[in-house]
Design a protein that fits this description.
heterodimer, A: about 1050 residues, disordered N terminus, B: Serine Threonine Protein Phosphatase 5, Tetratricopeptide repeat
Chain lengths: ~1050, ~500
């Protein structure tokens, strides 16, 4: 991390200097010089030269030369550069000052991006972590969040599905809400965007700052409670025009590790044979001789997978002229998916330019269009929703190909074989179903900055975000993703067109001033943001020709799924921050933001979000000066209030549902009904957070250590409180309840060896906890899909019956609590939690209990970087401990009725008192009345530990020398992503999974950690070159 | 520099009035603040109040009122699980603890009835404050009162004591009310429906399909029949008969709505309206009544659709041998009401199951049909009148009974007239969700169902159990006259 922070700091000092630089000609006295490295006496480009106590600064050029006009002969110049000790040199009348910078691992003099400004890292009093994305530029992934996995302390980043370009879940400090969103706020070049960050080419990003505590985030007010991620894109760098090209290509595969072990044809036929004979029924002829299927297994799951190529091209041109700076980044990313017929393409461009119009006025424009085309079959979801799940439990004796080698269309055996669910050919489904999204994204920023007097900066900006997304689904008559749809099926299509437009005007004034040892900075601002979304969905079916999936080609337009939607919000804000420090040693910051939002009820329109923080650089105190090994020690504390406004745009209103139509005779008449209750007091969720932290740097900065403890209480949770439906309504949206979160975060960076072999390590570990303090009056729990959120316990725990093996014999059955009318010898035995002698599901005598928890005890990451000569080598590992998953697909893949293919382990089930099996799976005798309990009453057998350690990335690079006539530099590398996962998780290949539920339960915050067998996360191996011209 | 100062000034003024900027009403739906102002608004609201009836009769009422009796049963599909919700109703084995049950069908019936009540409460709370044409207002208000009364009649018959909501709920606190006694619920129904009778037009003056004064009189008479208030029932029923708005269809089979034809015919007093097509106004109840697994071809033979799909699961509402035997020899209604289907994949005997015929009509799209569901037919008015008269010792009862029997091709009833009327109701109104209520109303439920349960347990193969399959051990273990209240409501309400 040391290296990355240096690079960040370099970038930021540079950017910061540019931001604040005022034309040198306005100054009085010129000083010039050359900056070199004390180690090898080489010129050092990019060093920041700043006149102390002012915002006047320049950057040394490519040859280490600088020229600065200072205000007078007493001026002091501050030379800073990442990895080198900052030097202060008094001008004292000299006109030439040459400086030799000494190397220093100190990272604390870096400038770090914070909300609405920048700060010296050593003066920061909140909890902020910064990552230089360039350090992970070789990772063969499409999304920046994938690059951040394992790098951020206190931030859990999971890849919940392997679908190309999708599925990253980012949670800062475990933040959760019952029904409000929990994604952090993403701010790109100062613009809080309304969409996610997946559309952004990671190569456009320079640094990412994650703001975690309330002091850092509260300036973002009602959107800050989930944490804030500040992203800066690449700006013109020092030096001459620079052109760099990064190209990589590689392939992806699905590892064998973690794939479910399903029955082969022989085992399946054997199971079916036993199923009938155990019931005393005649065995259907096709199962009488299981060995006939030897070598004839159709592995439907494997048939859907492929080895898939991935390619990435990025061209970056930077130019830094006297009065203008421009960066252009053009990127092409193409990835085929490891599931058949899935592909993802992204074409992106970004142009960032800045112009100095005069000494005091600067303008800048950023323009970033991108186009994404994404085609993925309906892979994820429950039975009949996702084809991967469908494929898993399709009978292995059913042929994928017919005798002539063509894909079959439809597999259905007589119902006398127990084949009550018919299956389409999922390979055909993958190939023929169109499930395509085309996105156009345009981000723009324009700013005007004016410095009327020294220290005062006025800045106004207009930002806009235009997003257009066109989704098209078409399932021809020859294919379906559903179960039990004979082929030819009814062809169906759905369309979704989305247009988002958001704009923001931001007006900020910053005033910097020093009085002796007292440094002040005051920030004031006013911002206004609007958002509008227009969405149209169309449902169609019964096409006259599969080749013409047009609207006019459909016989039916499905009224129920053809709709128009409009979503709008507006946000008016006032913000202010005061930063003060005394001698750089005692640090104090206070900030406040007031947000007025159209989402809030008319009685509760404005929210105010204050914070205070303080820091003490103890190592600057005299009594610690003589501790040689201590480079820096800072203690900091903060407290503040933030909000979460992800409460829906119109939740406060009682809405009329105007499609409650009726028929009289054969005539349709329009009908309406009030569909929700109004709440004019509805507001944001409030989070009050306290943070205390320690920054420590030892042994000449060879070891840097960061620790934070936080505790936060989220109150006024947006909660659709269920109300008795005797009211005619299902719920009432209110701000109710409280969750407490707390945690410990540790980060460490070490320089293990220097010299020829440079080895650095950065590692972090985070412990996040939560407990539900209260819900609504009279409500002590809310249920998720297979989850409960109970007062006094952690959020969103798995909830169901506790399995206790099988009833081993009649005596066991007679002496144990039973499910009335359903339990038999050999069927699953459940714990009688309430001790009333019978097993009951739901109601007042419910025997369900907490079965586990999807949240980890701790998460961790470790990155090792080695450099030897021209070689560089990086290994990133991430892990999670104590998280559990609910293996939901077991309701099909261990269904004892023999209607699906099953896990191999089901073969070893209870068959008789003499042959009780492994004690895990129960008897098949008695049909659904008996087996349904084991299958449908989710029990603790479905829950399993999913702790893992993933070798996320290994990259090996070699920098070529001696080709300077062609390139400034050239580097070749090989990079492998998702190298290996160490885990005991057996429910599927991805221990980070959390399947979207597609109609089964809410799949939201209350129902996390469910494995419905999603798109596998591939292992990717790429080879690439970085060329600088 | 001045220019720039001006520019900043302008930007600062961009937002002049925050509160205007911060008030955004949804563009894609109306909100209650602006609704309930015009006649069209109220007409839409009344139309919306009819909507839950579709769900009720399509999905629930036949489970709770018909399969929960000796008239129909389910056709056990041993390969299929997750059917216990329906089976528990047919088997009188609904688990109930402390007077509540988790049975989803019971819960949904309750919810849908209260949805009607909430919608009508909203109308009734505001309609008097708005200036509307007097005739239109009376008609709309009368419909709302009828629907509220009807919903409460369903609730009080299913559950007995339930919360009595008469004004719209606006806060969370108002959502739960204490259980009101069944007497007070009945009293409210009487008040509502009496007012509705005054407000509603007769059938010939009303849009076909909407409720009428005749329907309201029948509904109120039904209440009086339950209360054994024979004289007042008689008065109302005579008014219906003498209104000359209704007559029996010549053929029994024609009494029932077709897919598009014969809706709201001369015999129809009130029927729940369905409409075939993609608008979401369709029903699919006849699919629920098919034994399964049934192939696409077999489905097509019943429905005439061109895109028939196979249907799996467990078939419900299959006529029992008991109801089949209840028809007298020569009763024309038997073949009009019941026929049979032979399933190639059937599990029971040779795969030939009886199936309800009377509601069936050919339609074009799979699982989407437009047949209306009869709630009150004129023949029931006649049978009610016969019963009310007979209970008062009036021999004119036989006249009305025989009107119904004559149409069925039968002669005058023999034996005890009260018994004859009771039996006549069973076959005339078979599968119209009357049987359970008649058993309860006449005090016969426990004895009839106990005997019925014993027959099923003794000879399950007569009741569509495949060879070797037996009724569940908890079958017929909970024969009670009322359904337990929904557990999900009990969880949320402090009142029960």
């Amino acid at each position: 991390m040391g290296k990355s922070l240096k690079k960040i700091a370099r970038t930021f000092i540079f950017t910061f200097t540019l931001l604040l630089a005022v034309n040198v000609q306005a100054q009085d006295k010129a000083v010039t010089g050359t900056v070199t490295s004390a180690i090898d006496s080489q010129e050092l480009p990019g060093v920041n030269v700043l006149e102390k106590g002012t915002t006047n600064g320049v950057v040394a050029d490519f040859d280490g030369n600088y020229s600065i006009s200072v205000s007078g002969e007493d001026a002091i110049l501050v030379f800073s550069y990442v990895g080198f000790t900052t030097q202060e040199i008094s001008v004292s009348g000299k006109t030439e000052i040459n400086v030799a910078m000494t190397e220093d691992a100190t990272t604390l003099d870096e400038v770090v991006l914070v909300g609405y400004g920048t700060q010296l890292k050593r003066e920061i009093t909140g909890s902020v972590q910064t990552v230089d994305v360039d350090d992970f530029r070789d990772m063969p992934v499409s999304q920046v969040a994938q690059k951040l996995q394992g790098q951020l302390t206190g931030v859990q980043i999971n890849q919940t599905t392997g679908k190309p370009g999708q599925g990253m879940s980012v949670r800062i400090r475990g933040q959760l809400s019952v029904s409000g969103g929990s994604d952090p706020l993403y701010v790109i070049d100062g613009f809080p965007i309304t969409g996610g960050i997946n559309a952004i080419n990671p190569d456009e990003i320079e640094t990412i700052s994650v703001l975690k505590d309330a002091a850092s985030t509260s300036l973002y007010g009602s959107r800050a409670a989930n944490g804030v991620v500040l992203i800066t894109t690449k700006k013109g760098r020092a030096g001459e025009t620079n052109v760099s090209l990064n190209v990589s290509t590689g392939f992806q595969t699905v590892p064998m590790r973690g794939r479910l072990e399903m029955m082969n044809s022989v085992e399946f036929a054997q199971f079916k044979n036993e199923y009938y004979s155990d019931q005393g029924d005649p065995v259907p002829s096709i199962f009488q001789n299981p060995s006939q299927y030897e070598g004839q297994t159709n592995d439907w799951y494997d048939a859907l997978l492929q080895t898939a190529p991935v390619q990435s091209y990025n061209l970056t041109v930077t130019s830094n002229k006297e009065k203008s700076r421009t960066t252009v980044i053009a990127g092409v990313y193409k990835q085929d998916g490891v599931v058949l017929n899935s592909d993802y393409e992204r074409y992106s461009l970004r142009m960032n330019s800045e112009y100095d119009i005069s000494d005091k006025v600067r303008v800048g424009f950023n323009l970033a269009p991108s186009y994404i085309k994404d085609n993925t079959p309906r892979t994820d979801g429950s039975r009949g929703q996702g084809i991967l799940f469908n494929a898993l439990h399709t009978w292995p004796i059913m042929p994928i190909y017919d005798d002539s080698g063509e894909l079959t269309y439809f597999n259905r055996l007589p119902s006398s074989t127990g084949n009550i669910f018919s299956y389409a050919n999922w390979v055909r489904s993958a190939q023929e179903i169109v499930n395509e999204t085309k996105d156009i994204n345009l981000l723009t920023n324009a700013f005007l900055e004016y410095k009327p007097i020294p220290g005062l900066t006025l800045k106004t900006s207009i930002n806009s975000e235009i997003y257009n997304s066109r989704y098209k689904f078409f399932s021809p008559s020859t294919a379906t993703f559903r179960i039990n749809r004979p082929i030819p099926a009814t062809s169906e299509s759905s369309r979704n067109e989305l247009n988002n437009f958001s704009w923001l005007n931001e007006n900020l004034a910053t005033y910097d001033r020093s009085f002796g040892d007292h440094d002040f900075q005051v920030l004031g601002g006013f911002t206004y943001q609007e958002f509008r979304q227009d969405r149209t969905t169309i449902g169609l079916d019964t096409f006259s020709d599969d080749r013409l999936p047009t609207i006019q080609g459909a016989a039916n337009i499905n009224r129920g799924s053809t709709n128009d939607f409009v979503q709008e919000w507006s946000l008016v804000s006032f913000l202010s921050r005061l930063t003060y420090n005394y001698k750089g040693k005692y640090l104090l910051t206070g900030s406040i933001r007031s947000d007025g939002s159209s989402r809030f009820g008319s009685e509760n329109r404005w929210g105010t979000f204050p914070s205070v923080s303080a820091g003490w650089v103890a190592s600057d105190e005299e009594f610690l000066q003589n501790i040689e090994s201590l480079s820096m020690a800072k203690i900091r504390a903060s407290y503040g209030v933030t909000g979460n406004n992800n409460i829906g745009n119109y939740t406060q209103y009682a809405l009329i549902n105007n499609v409650q139509n009726a028929a009289f005779g054969n005539d349709l008449v329009p009908g309406s009904a009030v569909s929700s209750l109004s709440n004019s007091n509805l507001g944001w969720e409030t989070t009050k957070q306290f943070d205390i932290g320690l920054d420590l740097s030892l042994f000449n900065d060879r070891l840097a250590f960061v620790y934070d403890y936080y505790t936060k209480n989220t109150t006024n949770l947006l909660f659709n409180v269920q109300v008795p439906q005797e009211s005619g309504f299902t719920n009432f949206s209110d701000n109710i309840g409280e969750i407490r979160f707390w945690g410990h975060e540790f980060g460490i960076n070490t320089v293990n060896t220097t010299g020829k072999l440079k080895w650095t390590t950065s590692a972090n570990i985070s412990f996040n906890r939560n407990v539900v303090e209260s819900l609504a009056d009279g409500i002590d729990r809310v249920y998720g899909s297979w989850h409960v959120t109970k007062v006094g316990e952690p959020f969103g725990q798995f909830y169901g019956h506790i399995a206790d093996g099988n009833y081993l014999n009649q005596a066991d059955l007679d002496s144990s609590p039973q499910v009335p009318g359903r339990s038999t010898v050999g069927s699953i035995k459940l714990i009688d939690v309430n001790g009333d002698g019978v097993i009951t599901r739901g109601g007042d005598n419910d025997d369900r209990a907490v079965m586990g928890n999807p949240f980890p005890d701790f998460t961790y990451g470790i990155t090792n970087t080695l450099k030897y000569g021209n070689f560089d080598f990086t290994v990133v590992g991430t892990g999670s401990q104590g998280n559990e998953l609910l293996v939901r697909h077991l309701f099909s893949t261990t269904n004892l009725d023999g209607v699906f293919n099953m896990l191999k382990a089901v073969g070893d089930r209870f068959r008789s008192e003499a042959n009780p099996g492994a004690g895990f799976y129960g008897t098949t005798v008695g049909g659904g009345n008996v087996t349904g309990i084991e299958r449908d009453w989710v029990n603790s057998r479905f829950v399993t530990d999913a702790s893992y350690f993933n070798i996320r990335n290994i990259t090996l690079g070699y920098t070529l020398s001696g080709i300077k006539n062609y390139f400034k530099s050239a580097r070749i590398y090989a990079s492998a992503q998702n190298v290996h996962i160490f885990t005991k998780y057996w429910g599927g290949p991805n221990p980070e999974i959390s399947t979207q539920n597609n109609g089964q339960g809410d799949g939201g915050n209350l129902s996390q950690g469910v494995d419905l067998s999603g798109y596998p996360v591939p292992r990717t191996i790429t080879f690439g070159v970085n060329l600088n011209f | 520099m001045k220019k720039i100062t001006i520019l900043f000034g302008i930007l600062g003024l961009l937002v002049t009035s925050c509160d205007d900027e911060l008030t955004i009403f949804p563009e894609d739906s109306l909100s209650a603040d602006t609704f309930f102002k015009t006649e069209a608004d109220f007409e839409q609201a009344v139309n919306g109040a009819y909507v839950p009836l579709r769900t009720i009769v399509d999905n629930r009422a036949w489970l709770l009122g018909e399969m929960h009796s000796d008239n129909t049963y389910y056709a056990r599909n041993v390969l299929f699980g997750a059917t216990e919700q329906q089976e528990d109703i047919a088997d009188f084995a609904i688990p109930s603890d402390n007077g509540v049950t988790t049975n989803t069908h019971v819960t949904n019936q309750y919810i849908q009835d209260y949805r009607i009540i909430a919608r009508t409460n909203q109308i009734l709370a505001t309609i008097d404050e708005v200036e509307l044409d007097a005739g239109a207002k009376a008609n709309l208000k009368g419909q709302a009162l009828f629907l509220r009364g009807y919903a409460y009649l369903e609730l009080v018959r299913y559950f007995g004591s339930v919360p009595l909501h008469l004004v719209p709920v606006t806060t969370r606190e108002e959502a739960a009310l204490p259980l009101a006694s069944s007497e007070s619920i009945y009293a409210q129904i009487v008040t509502d429906v009496q007012e509705a009778i005054q407000l509603l037009p007769v059938k010939s003056q009303q849009t076909p399909g909407r409720v009428t004064s005749g329907a309201a009189r029948t509904l109120l008479a039904n209440v009086y029949m339950i209360q054994q208030n024979w004289a007042q029932a008689e008065t109302l029923l005579r008014e219906v008969v003498q209104s000359n708005e209704y007559s029996l269809m010549a053929n029994y089979a024609d009494a029932f709505s077709g897919n598009t034809a014969n809706k709201n015919n001369a015999e129809s007093v009130f029927e729940v309206q369905f409409k075939e097509g993609p608008e979401g106004l369709d029903g699919n109840f006849i699919y629920a009544f098919m034994p399964r697994p049934i192939t696409a071809e077999e489905v097509a033979s019943l429905t005439g659709t061109s895109n028939a799909q196979p249907v799996n699961g467990e078939g419900n509402n299959i006529p029992t041998p008991d109801i089949i035997a209840a028809y007298e020899a020569g009763d024309l209604r038997k073949n009009a009401s019941i026929d049979s289907i032979t399933l190639s994949g059937g599990f029971w005997k040779d795969g030939t199951y009886p199936i309800i015929k009377k509601f069936r009509d050919n339609h074009s799209l799979h699982n989407n049909h437009g047949m209306n569901w009869p709630v009150y037919r004129y023949s029931e008015v006649l049978l009610f009148l016969a019963e009310a008269l007979n209970e008062q010792g009036d021999a004119e009862a036989a006249t009305y009974l025989n009107l119904v029997r004559t149409r069925a091709g039968l002669g005058a009833a023999a034996g005890d007239l009260g018994e004859a009327i009771f039996n006549e109701r069973r076959v005339e109104l078979a599968f119209e969700n009357k049987r359970w209520f008649d058993l309860v109303r006449t005090g016969r439920a426990v004895s009839v169902i106990t005997a019925y349960g014993n027959r099923i347990k003794a000879t399950p193969s007569d009741y569509y159990y495949p060879d070797g399959a037996a009724p569940r051990t908890n079958a017929f273990s909970n024969i009670s006259l009322l359904y337990a209240l929904p557990a999900s409501e009990s969880d949320l309400s402090p009142e029960f």
